[in-house]
Design goal:
Shape: globular
Distance between the termini: 45 Å
Helix content: 25-40%
Oligomer: single chain
Number of helices: 13
Radius of gyration: 23 Å
Largest sheet: 5 strands, parallel
Strand order of the largest sheet: 3-2-1-7-19
Structural class: alpha/beta
Number of strands: 27
Length: 464
Amino acid sequence: MRLVVVGNGMAGSRLVSEVRARDPHMRITVFGAESCRPYNRVLLSNVLAGSSRPEQVRLVDSSWYDAHDVEAVFGSTVTRIDRQAGYVVTDGGRREPYDVLVLATGSDAVVPPVPGVERAIPFRTLGDCERIMAAAGHARRAVVVGGGLLGVEAARGLAGRGLPVTLLHLAGHLMERQLDVEAGEVLGETLAGLGVEIRTGVSAEAVREDGVLLAGGELVAADLVVLACGVRPVTGPAAEAGLRVRRGVVVDDELRTDDPSIFAVGECAEHDGTVYGLVAPAWEQAAVAADVITGGKARYRGSRLVTRLKARSVELAAMGETQLGEEHAEVVRFSHRARGTYRKLVIRDGRLVGAILLGESDVVGTLTQLFDRGGPLPGDRAGLLFPGAAATPVADSPTLMPDAARVCQCNNVTKGEIRACWEAGARDVAAVAAATRATTGCGTCRDAVEGIVGWLCEQEGVSV
């Protein structure tokens, strides 16, 4: 069987590796629009800040494709799908036949139609990141347009290079899709402490050589302008081929489109009315699609979203229905703005349906597990936010954490799997990551994995 994968980003590359792990013989060809090997897009802000090098965020090494008998075509965009004849056509004119086709085309950056926008640089790809870093080397001041997750990451990254940054956002507070008003304000205050000036409730009308012109005529001075205005799923080839497209390419629980020989995964796919923009759902979809393609019976039932941001002086986790107030749910809230701390639990019918954790917190893992499982909460609500004060400790340490607890959300790795990996000989985080992929997504579970590995070594008297 001939499998063709269109897109070699985080979803497409994972799909390829999942299929190859299940079937060592299937013929696989993957086309990537970018000229480089796939990389972890989640970690681009670290590259921008200078704390990671581009080669450190690669998902596979250069020898992987030959070693696993996969043909990877870089810098080649698929422009047409001929469903009747069963082949795809690239921008270079290559025709590649398929028996099964997987669309993992991802998203493109949204570029607002304002005068002079060509002077700005979108923050989306590694190439964009390299252009921004080159410009930052001789810039005196930067402006980031957009205060969602990407905009916050871009602003934090540029500030990490010592560059004065102004962050412009149309909404009244940062990350309004994930955060309530107070959390957005606390995040803004944290960024301000890192050298980022926050301007909310403003609209960029034009990009000029000397900065960004706001509605009303004010000029925000800058010689580097970065766009983080959201993303839009790449659905053009699918729509032109007659596949069902709404916001994304519509798929069922097997990740199939309305053509049974064509699948879609990642940011270009729309499942049950939802397009997911985070890495964990894309990787969950890739695993399900790989099972189905290789003859399995897996089904995708949707993902419970957890937005994570962990960088120098900025730690954030947001999950579920964060916007609800006391009139619609039980809300437990703690705020200490002077320390950049904000914690909020949203509880309905005794279960955690949403949470915001901003600032250093040792309860992120526990609350993520409670949200993910949807189980009943203990009666001591304060103890969930401050486990040291709880009458009964919560399962937040390796000793108390059950084996079924999910440690790595991005890769769905449990404590039990880490324990089994350790018992098989993996004695450090790098070995566990190689065997399970834990820590290779957003990276926020690294401390937890280190804690489990260290605890196991200590229990068994193993020196590392």
